[in-house]
Design brief:
Elements (H helix, E strand, L loop, with lengths): L1 E2 L4 E4 L4 E6 L7 E3 L9 E6 L4 E6 L6 E6 L3 E9 L17 E11 L1 E8 L10 E4 L3 E5 L4 E5 L5 E3 L2 E8 L4 E9 L14 H18 L8 H13 L1 E2 L4 E2 L22 E2 H10 L6 H14 L8 E2 L4 E2 L3 E2 L10 E2 L13 E2 L11 H11 L1 H4 L4 H17 L18 H17 L9 H18 L1 E2 L4 E2 L14 H4 L8 H13 L1 E2 L2 E2 L25 E2 H13 L3 H12 L11 E2 L6 E2 L5 H18 L5
Antiparallel strand pairs: 1-2, 2-3, 3-4, 3-5, 5-10, 6-7, 7-8, 8-9, 9-16, 10-15, 11-12, 12-13, 13-16, 14-15, 17-18, 19-22, 20-21, 23-24, 25-26, 27-28, 29-30, 30-31
């Protein structure tokens, strides 16, 4: 993944950019070969056989790929540019929407084939191209794209081609820049300046990391890298955080569980803030709170309004957009022939009552850094608590966004308890909007209901929903949010039941998709066909719960096993294939890197060393 604080690109081991959306994460893709071989890419690949070794330049999201061929060695460096001289907290403001690529000869000589195949709007458009000396421009449509090469390219079939020969000491720069159609034609960086611009972008990332160093424990490298990934998934102009930079990467090859994750889920963004809370500066916390209050429509039914029955929307566009209507992209073949590919996400209309708890927990963690709360923020937080108090008795779609009938999901009840518990603690900061006694009383009623109706005697564990016998990894949130200690006998039994009965080859499933115990026997538990992989976040939850339960050794073994499935750069997807060990689902996934950071912290606390 490359990132610039507004969007992201994905580059494969062949040096091919197979995914790029500009100017935002959720913009229609310019390159989408990730989802269809004919949907666009930009490759700089050695001719003939080669071996590739990759790394990020230290402290950055600038990618370096070293190609070794029979005739020589060369390096390819890739970056999404940031403005010249940008540093620290400003990283991601006003990016030039430019992809920079540099080839450097190391030894011998290496021949490269360069193919630039822009296909805007998810591959629907074959743009008109015009060569401009050592570059090319597109004409027509809702995008302007301009590129510069260090050698004269050739055009044909709505694509641009070039061949390179690189020898030791040579550094050849490429650039591609995007602009909207109503502006002047964009000017890509000159090839001779590309190396210095890439170096400056790497330094910008290092300066951000130096200001956001969140961890000193034994898992330092993994945690620092995950924090960098989460920054790369942040939309700096508003403070939003996307769940992933991709759409429609399947949860099982050939299946229909292919969703668009390029939006700001309240849950994912709140958990990201929680994971980074010691390293996040006050401005970033304020940016996120500002995004949430404005996206939720402040003033008015902020966070939902118990009087009108409205509820906080579970997700928004990165600019605060509400309507994320889902549509299929039938012209795309789909990754591994997994149809349909989708843009938009129909889950935006769902009721998921847990989001009130995740957001109030984040506000609670940041209460000191946020200082005195603006009256609108006070009202927003109180609205979250009031809605949780009023609506916790209702069924919902649950945090896994099940597309079957609404149910009384245990995790939603527990997170409503979290909302009320944190609201009680925040009450002195909420001014006239605080209803401390009412929130405390309703919090106790939620707790009693969960303890009574959430327990399955048949399973000997807390279940997926009230009066159900199906297991759900979300029950692991109970000790992680302080609802019950991990050493409580029933909680300890639940942790062991999940470790025993909800795992494949030691990795944790969210739930068993065909386990309809407690659903009335109406078929698959989530209303969808097919299977899915083991869920990375849930495996990290289990590691955290084991650490809290006094089993840090078991937790460390599981932690090391899960992190071992990351790709060669350390990036984690949403899921892991329990049969083949491959990564499944959208990539890279914020949830997965959040889980890594939190599990590392829990294990360190259990061992008595390190901290986050």
């Amino acid at each position: 993944m490359l990132a610039d604080g507004n969007s992201a690109a994905l580059v494969d081991r062949r040096g091919s950019v197979d995914w790029l959306c500009l100017p935002r994460f959720d913009s229609p893709a310019l390159f989408a070969r990730l989802l269809d071989p004919d949907a666009g890419h930009w490759s700089i690949t050695p001719r003939g056989p080669f071996e590739a070794a990759r790394r990020y330049l230290p402290g950055s999201l600038v990618l370096e790929t070293t190609f070794t061929t029979a005739t020589g060695v060369a390096r390819l460096r890739d970056a999404l540019a940031v403005p010249q001289g940008q540093r620290g907290h400003d990283l991601g403001l006003r990016p030039p929407h430019e992809l920079l690529r540099e080839v450097e000869g190391v030894s011998g000589e290496v021949l490269f084939d360069v193919d630039l195949v822009p296909r805007p709007e998810y591959g629907l458009v074959r743009p008109l191209l015009r060569l401009t000396g050592s570059g090319v421009r597109t004409f027509g449509g809702p995008n302007q794209i301009a590129a510069r090469f260090p050698v004269p390219p050739e055009a044909g079939d709505a694509a641009v081609h070039a061949r390179l020969r690189v020898t030791p000491g040579q550094r050849l720069g490429f650039s591609l820049v995007w602009a909207p159609p109503e502006t002047a034609p964009p000017e890509p960086t000159a090839p001779g300046r590309v190396p210095e611009r890439i170096a400056d972008t790497a330094e910008a990332w290092r300066s951000w990391e130096a200001e956001h160093d969140i961890y000193r424990g034994p898992h330092r490298d993994l945690v620092r890298f995950s924090a960098r990934v989460l920054k790369g998934l942040s939309y700096r102009p508003t403070g939003a955080v996307v769940a992933a930079p991709t759409t429609s990467l399947p949860e099982t090859a050939g299946g229909e569980r292919n969703w668009d994750y390029r939006y700001a889920w309240i849950r994912d963004a709140s958990l990201t803030l929680e994971a980074l809370h010691l390293g996040t500066c006050p401005d970033e916390a304020s940016d996120f709170v500002s995004f949430m209050t404005s996206a939720a429509g402040m003033p008015g039914a902020a966070g939902g309004d118990a009087r009108t029955g409205s509820s906080l929307q579970i997700m928004y566009g990165v600019g605060g957009e509400h309507d994320l209507s889902e549509r299929e992209l039938p012209h795309l073949r789909g990754r591994w022939d997994s149809r349909p590919a989708r843009a938009g996400n129909g889950a935006w209309t769902q009721t998921q009552l847990d989001v009130h708890g995740e957001l109030l927990n984040a506000l609670h963690l940041y209460r000191e850094r946020l200082g005195d709360l603006h009256p609108e923020i006070q009202r927003f937080a109180a609205g979250l608590a009031d809605t949780a108090a009023e609506r916790w008795t209702e069924p919902d779609a649950g945090m896994w966004e099940m597309r079957g009938p609404p149910r009384h999901h245990l995790s939603s009840k527990v997170l409503c308890w979290v909302a009320l518990d944190r609201a009680v603690e925040l009450a002195p900061r909420l001014g006239r909007h605080a209803r401390t006694a009412a929130w405390a009383a309703e919090r106790d009623r939620v707790r009693a209901a969960v303890l009574r109706r959430g327990w399955s005697e048949r399973r000997g564990a807390y279940a997926q929903a009230f009066d159900s016998d199906a297991l759900d990894a979300a029950a692991l949130l109970m000790p992680l949010y302080g609802f019950l200690p991990a050493t409580d006998p029933r909680m300890a039994a639940t942790i062991e039941a999940i470790a025993r009965d909800l795992t494949e080859d030691g990795l944790v499933l969210r739930y068993r998709v065909n386990d309809d115990r407690g659903t009335g026997g109406d078929g698959a538990a989530d209303g969808l066909a097919g299977d899915e992989g083991t869920f990375v976040l849930c495996s990290f939850w289990l590691a955290s719960a084991l650490a809290l339960a006094g089993h840090p050794g078991r937790a460390e073994v599981l932690f090391d096993r899960v992190t071992g499935f990351a790709n060669d750069l350390g990036l984690l997807a949403e899921e892991i294939d329990p049969r083949g060990g491959g990564l499944l689902g959208n990539f890279p996934q914020a949830f997965s890197h959040v889980g890594l950071i939190n599990a590392a912290a829990a294990i360190d606390r259990a061992h008595g060393d390190g901290r986050v």
